Amino acid sequence: MTPAKKLTAIAAVAAITLLLPACASGPDASEPTNAADGSVDLRMSIWSSDERQISLFNSIADEYKTDHPEIGSITFESLPFADYNTTLTTQIAGGNAPDMAWVGDIAKDLIVSDALVPLTETFQKTKGYDYDDILPSVAKSFSQGEELYAYPFSNSPFALYVNKTLLAEAGQTVDPENLTWDTVSEMGAAVNKSTGKAGFVIRDFDYSSWLTLPSLWTGWGAKAWNAKGDTCLMDTPEMVDAFQFLHDAIYVDKSTPGPGVTADFFAGDSAFTTAQVSRASLLDGSFDFDIYPLPAGPAGDYSVLGQAGMGVLASSDHPQEATDFLSFMTNPTNSAQLAQFFPPPRESLLTGDKLAAVNTKLSAEQLTRVVVDELPEAVSPPVHTGPAKIAQTGKTALDRMWNADADVEEVLGDMCSALAPLLTAE
Amino acid sequence: MPTTRTTSFWTTKRRDVLAGYLFIAPQLAGIVAFVLLPVGLSIWFSLNKWNIFTGDLAFVGGENYLRAVNDPQLPSVLLATAVFSGGVVILNLAAGLGLAVLLNRKITGGALFRTLFFSPVVISVVAWTLVWGFLLQDNGAINNLLALVGIDGPNWLQQGPTAMAAVIVTQVIRSVGVNMILFLSALQGVPRELYEAARVDGATPAAVFFRITLPLISPTLLLTAIITIVGSLQAFAQVAVLTEGGPDLSTTVLVYYLYQQAFEFNDIGYGSTLALMLLSFVLVLTIVQWQLRRKWVFYED
Asked: Could you state, in order of their start, the residue ranges of all structural domains in chain B?
């Protein structure tokens, strides 16, 4: 080796050593990307397969690509909702994780494992993003401390859907001023008796997904566990009363169908259903409907929210580019477009008129009633690390509830015994 | 000049050996990639705790095995597995043999029935089970039919015993066709002259069946018993679609339980431990049957 070559080699090594810490400093979306043109392929996992939604996402991606030559492609990968978490975690475990993903109850597991990229700083630095427009109450589920880990793009309150045609058949009318769970159950029983159709149906519960039940038990002031998440509250007197109401509705009043019976409100099978406002897209006009806030329970008026967020996975090869794209996809202009499908987290978009302008099923008045007025006070459903195990263990314990002669209090007590170790697990 | 014949490295024997290995290479590669490697990985995972979100793999030794021993749910799961497999094997072999014996007689429409009984085998198991799920609803077709004749049918999938029966029966109806075809071909291989000789000797139909037919088809019986047991221990979609292991743990069979642990609860380590347990069950049962074949399997040669 000639001295000149030696020197070059030493210089090269020194340069690499100097560069390394710079590379390791991690993503910072405020810096422009260094990626070569067309070298960045991004993939976002979603659980929707609605073609209108996907074509909107694609059009946002196409617009982004015109200013960002480094992007080769942005794809939206639709995974079946039922197995979404399982598929996503299997992809993560297999080293084939997407760059971005929709997250629901899996968010907490991802956040505590540092598997999501923090977003607050990037969003705040993005021009015209108006970060403070995002309601803190809806950002909470996807935050740890002050740091946001997923943009809460969908904040859909639970509402009471009413089949007016079926109620009229049974000679019943809804008095919106006086809508309580007791009156819903009474009217439901009357509908069941005179038409044979179902009274009220708690959508997606199916005597299995009991974590959909906050839309009911919050009316009794009940909670699944405490704020810290380490104490089971399924056996409190409020919860016992709420389940007693449900049990009576099934086995005494027959105002809601029991286990093993299918009744789809949107196919006209039931008089009432509780479901998220975003489910209004399932209405096909085959019957007269209306939509109201959830009926009051013994604890008064309440509202409950179902949420979904969009986050960037830390394992992505391009976290910086993915975060930058996410800040574009969720900026005020694009958020307004997303609002036609998902109730937005931005205060500026939350007026009945603005929502109605992009919603084909519900009127401004209805949207004000069930979204705008409800969102600020809505409680998010319980979240915890290890949601699948909690859901499954709770379901197994609750199975004994679904018999005419079940002892509600005893079943819920046993349920807490089964859940306690999972809540305190790290 | 004397030619010293240099013995080539490739002697005839070595060539044969190479050819032999080349012939089994594809099969061997498949077994290594899809059997030995996954089993090895499962053993490794079972000794670790894997946080799949962070990717941390921490060696925990026998902790997962200790957990299996102390798992309060595992006895119920093993009982459900035994009931399910026992039910499926007995019903499947009995029904398969019964149908084969019936179809072996020269009856009109035999081909039609053969096709009919075999057709569920080629239907996707998920589609098949979904349809049965609808039929077995409390307000489903089966209970509506029962109501027509004045019977108040049970809420099939919501009570332990009927849920288990439903899972077993849907599995048997779906898979009995394979055994039926295997038995049918075995029955048709039984030499006619043996039956004629028996008839000349005045044997009763029952004696003919138990003394001639059964011994002669016993190799097929062994084969079907092994594949039915192995198949029943691996039945997953029926449980996942029809009952999700409920009510309670009444239909949670081992393979569904390990799926829950590994893929729903993200506990790959414990899931792998359970998978190895399942593997050893299958292995032991197969070896036992193979050893017992000397006792009851009759080979003509």
From this structure: 12-59, 69-296
A135 and A240: one domain?
Answer: no
- Crossing angle of the two packed helices B160-188 and B125-135, in degrees rounded to 10: 130
Residue A9 resides in a domain: no
Look at B138 and A113 and tell me if their CB atoms are within 8 Å.
Answer: no
Comparing alpha-carbon positions, the chain B residue that sits nearest to A393 is: B248
Domain that holds residue A272: 160-303+382-424
Whole-angstrom Cα Rg for chain B: 25
Closest CA to B184 of B211, B220, B209: B220
CA triple A277-A282-A287, angle to 5 deg: 100
ipTM of the modeled complex: 0.79
* Residue A225 DSSP class: B
CA atoms within 13 A on the CB side of A19: 6
Q: Kindly give, in sequence order, each residue whose CB lies less than 8 Å from that of residue A334, ignoring residues fewer than 6 positions away.
A: A60, A328
Closest CB to A392: pick one of B51, B156, B260. Answer: B260
Q: Kindly report, residue by residue over A168-224, the tens digit of the pLDDT.
A: 999 999 988 889 999 999 999 999 999 999 999 999 898 989 999 999 999 999 999
The amino acid occupying position B275 is A
Q: Does one domain contain both A174 and A278?
A: yes
In a domain, A295, yes or no: yes
Nearest to A338 by CA among A8, A102, A146, A104: A102
Residue A14 lies in a domain: no
- Contact status, residue A191 vs residue A166, Cβ threshold 8 Å: yes
Please give the residue of chain B at the shortest CA–CA distance from A258: B138
Pairing of strands A305-312, A100-103: antiparallel
For residue A379, count other CB atoms closer than 10 A to its CB. Answer: 15
Q: What is the pTM of this model?
A: 0.82
Residue of A nearest to B72 (CA): A418
Nearest Cα of chain A lies from the Cα of B68 at a distance, in angstroms, of 17
Is A399 at the interface with chain B, CB within 8 A?
Answer: yes
Tell me if A22 is assigned to some domain: no
pLDDT in tens, B134-163: 999 888 899 999 999 988 888 898 888 999
**Cα–Cα distance for residue pair B267/B252, rounded to 1 Å:** 17
Contact A324/A208 with Cβ under 8 angstroms? Answer: no
Q: Clarify whether residues A236 and A96 are in a common domain.
A: no
Specify the CATH superfamily of domain B69-296: MetI-like (1.10.3720.10)
Phi, psi angles (nearest 5°) of residue A207: 55, 30
DSSP strand pairing (A151-163 vs A270-276): antiparallel
